[in-house]
Task: structure prediction
Amino acid sequence: MTLRNWILGTGLACVMAVGCQKAAEAPAPPAVSATPAAAAAPEAARVKAALTGEVTDYHGRPLSGVQVTARDDARAWNVSVFTDGNGHYAFPQLEAGAYRLWVRLIGFERRERSIVLPPEGIDVDFGQVRTAEDPYAQLPATYFYSLMDWPSANLRGNFALACANCHQIGDPLWRKPRTQAEWDAVVARMKFRGPPLLEEANKLLARPYRKPWDEVPRRLKL
Ligand code: HEC
Result:
């Protein structure tokens, strides 16, 4: 599947999702339940419990600033908290039940596990979290954009408008090393997809792409 198809596909899925939500708002048929007492329990009566834990790196050192997310797939709902300076996290009281729980920190692998939060609460630790195999894949487009030292704000702005409207600067395809000819061919294909890329910007742009981006040590003077 090409990226273009993927983008179109995602758009379509969103439209369909909106459609589904509308459908869900229609009056529901009377509920049939094997356990009428439980089904009738008011919202406030659901048991809430504490979900806490600790995140440590491969050497057992606490990791701070880790985003920890608990997701309730049944209700399509999630909540995130961050670890403190001691690598500890604590969610506000959550309803007991099944969750997917994952941890994320730029530069580190993403870890996920399925848990069941019991009414008495639970401690879930993530130990030996390793550094990511491809940390560059986790960096945002702004990182790669910031590496490019354009000679003027005008060219910098033109590049952003012409190229960054549709996809991220620095995604894996951008970061692929290419010869000058290969890069020229890509730009020729891309050039008029957005607002036209100025010829002056185009000339400067070709240079850095001969190197893999992952080896770019610091800002690139264009
Ligand atoms: C209108 C949307 C749009 C704009 C604007 C756009 N692109 Fe793309 N780009 C795409 C799509 C869709 C793909 C994947 C399909 C393809 O290769 O045609 C892609 C693919 C790419 C690739 C990977 C190509 C490969 O064969 O590996 C690079 C690199 C790229 N674009 C760079 C650029 C640059 C540089 C600019 C600015 C001159 C730009 N793009 C502007 C939509 C766009």
